[in-house]
Amino acid sequence: MSLKIALFASGRGSNVQAILKAIETGTLDVSPQCLIANMEDAPVLDLGRAANLPTYCIPHKNLSREQHEADVLKALASHNIDYIVLAGYMRMLTPGFLKNYAAVDHYRIVNIHPSMLPAFPGTHAYEDAFNQGVKTSGVTVHFVDEIMDNGPILIQESFPRHDDDTLETFKARGLALEHRLYPQALQYLAENRVSFRYDADIDRCFVELKTHAPC
Ligand code: GRF
Hints:
Blueprint: E1 3-9, H1 14-24, E2 30-37, H2 44-50, E3 55-57, H3 65-77, E4 83-86, H4 95-98, E5 102-103, E6 106-107, E7 109-113, H5 125-132, E8 136-143, E9 153-160, H6 167-190, E10 194-199, E11 204-209
Parallel strand pairs: 1-2, 1-4, 2-3, 4-7
Antiparallel strand pairs: 5-6, 7-8, 8-9, 10-11
Helix pairs in contact: 1-6, 5-6
The structure holds 5-O-phosphono-beta-D-ribofuranosylamine.
């Protein structure tokens, strides 16, 4: 049975689109149960509706984090989901929310970040990497814990910065990689190839990826 996911997004939704396309073309075996966006004018809302997904617009404006997350949890309660997939969801989740979907050895929220973490965490990763003059950057899909862009890394891939790159061409190369990498990472989850190893000495959890899907 397909893995059930909830998609969370805040804006354009090109990663949501890439995920939906991978499902449509048969390279990704997950079943989105709903899409939740926190911005009223987010174009991703149209994508969710066009895909006939239960689509919730839950604006965070004028609400405390806890009030907003209570509304999100209410929407999620009517769906039976295995994982939350953050696809450009530009909001930190509180520890209170995370405890529903993350334990030290079983994380159930994934995120995509446009840098080779732990380099360039934060909301301007493309700009920060480009302005630093990196020769190589990357994309990371990781599990979410209480610290921003910190949780166990599921998959990472690098991309080059070319000498004649502008920020726009650099970003476009990274985004194309995001669109390939996120569906691939989710497919690892769908194939049950992901396990966690907790290292008590350094109090950190690592993702171990089985090479082949178990029979
Ligand atoms: C992506 O670059 C993603 O890595 C970052 O926010 C951006 C969202 O883009 N977290 P989109 O809405 O998926 O087009």
